[in-house]
Each structure stands twice: as structure tokens, then as C-alpha cells.
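User: Show me a protein chain along with its predicted structure.
Assistant: Here is one chain, sequence first, then C-alpha cells.
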Amino acid sequence: MQNKTKINWSLNDYCKSECSYCPVSARGGLLPPETQDYIRVAKLLIDNYASMGRTIDWSFNGGEPLDMNDIVTLLKLCRESGNSMELTTNGGRLWMDWWAIEPYVDSLHLSYHYWQQPALIKYIIGIFKNKNKLFEVTAPIRPDYFNTDIDRVLELETTTDIRVNKTILYINADNSAGMFPYTNHQLLTISRLNGNEVNNDLVEEKQNFELTTWDDRYQQIYTSNPIYTGKMCNAGIEYLNIGAQGWVSGSVCNNLSLGNIWQKNWQPPTLPQKCTMIACVHELDQQITKF
């Protein structure tokens, strides 16, 4: 049994940027609770897993974490009480934020949007390169602004000497709902620019979606993944997911609800769950110990 717990925490569904291609669940939400409320929950989590002899690998995302008030206090507490901190962010809009943020972030997932200041993105990349810290940059490529977005990303690659992952967009960010209306030429261009010189997986994915029904795809997914129905799973012990509205589950599949962190007297899980799912689909869930 592992002695680390991965906590994936969507801190909010609030983002000032309001990109139209982002899922509704990650934007347009209400202002997040006060930082002291997050601190209270974080301390509950730290104490709970420490009592089981476990330490925490944290992963923060949103919404947009940097649109919260005093995110640094929460980062500092969790990083100093855990093994690592992974942050997913669009970088925000203020350069000075990163002087305080960077010391508490071990791994950065930075998204580069059409509205972002290239100079700020380059500054953040420079900080993480100089500190030899892990980071990746992804850029959503809009089909209706394809050449503009590609040119913007290629300029960033040239000036920073890194490879940016050019990502396609899915309806409501859900693969099962299908991708935005890209042409085959656009998809092949993205594959090539991402280093897949002869890869046409994106075109095949588009064609498969057009030629199959939801039931067909459902069967493809559930017949190609392992089955643990009825077995005990260390969901909630080795992995914990906290959604933007505070709802908690011990797995990506949301097997059983573990309550809501904003409910009065909420407590973190201390016991494994029995699997009730038809199949274990998500890679993270497959890594959780079953017995």
C-alpha cells in the first residue's frame, strides 16, 4: 500500500477570463469562499492523512486559482505540510504574484490563451527554467482562429526554446461530446506541430465520433478497461478529488459521494470503498489499490 495520498482540488469554478471554449463547470461561478475557509479544510485533510501515516501530494486547479484572494497562504500551508504541489493555472495577470507563488510550486501546468500577455507567460517560463522545476505549457487552438493561434504559439516556442502542446477543444471539454469543428487539415497540422509527424489519431478520432453512436462508444470504453466491481478500493485513501463546488469523491469515477467540504462538520474519509462501477475507466482510478 502506498503511503502517499494524491489530492486533486478544484479550488473554484470562478475565472475572470470567461473563455467561451472552457466548460461551464470551470468558469462563471460565484466568488470563492474566504481563504480562511480553505485553510480550515486543508488542516482537516493534513491531520486526517497524517493520522494514517500518509503524506499528501497536492494538485490545485480551478476555475482559476490565481483569481482567489491570498492563494499564497493556502499554497504555503499545503506545500510545507506535504510532499509536493502541482498547480494548473493560466498564469494570471500580475508579474509580482509569481515572486510569492513560485517557491511553493513543484510542478506547473500553464495554459497560454489568446488574451494572455506573452511577456508574462515568458517570464513565468523563465522562472521555472532557471529553477529547473517541472512545467508544461498548453495552448488551446481555436478552429475559427487557427492560423492566428498557431502563429502565436510558434512565436512563444521560438523565443523560449520549449515545445508548447497545442490542444484541440472539445464541446464542454468532454471528449464524449466530440471536438470543435476542425477540418482534417487542421487536425493533421496540430499533430505534426506536436511532434507526431505521421500520426493521424486526431482525424481518426473525429471520424470515429461521426460514424458511431454514443452506445457504440460506451461499449468500446467499458469493454476495454479492467473490472473491479465488488472489490474494495482505496478510493479516498490514496486519492481524493474535491470539485469546484466542494463535493468530494475518492476517485475520478465518483463511485460514492464523500460529502461536501463546505457542509457543517464534514470530515475526510478514513476507510476504503466498495467498487460499484461497471469498469475502471480512468487511468488514475486504475492506479488505486484494489483488494
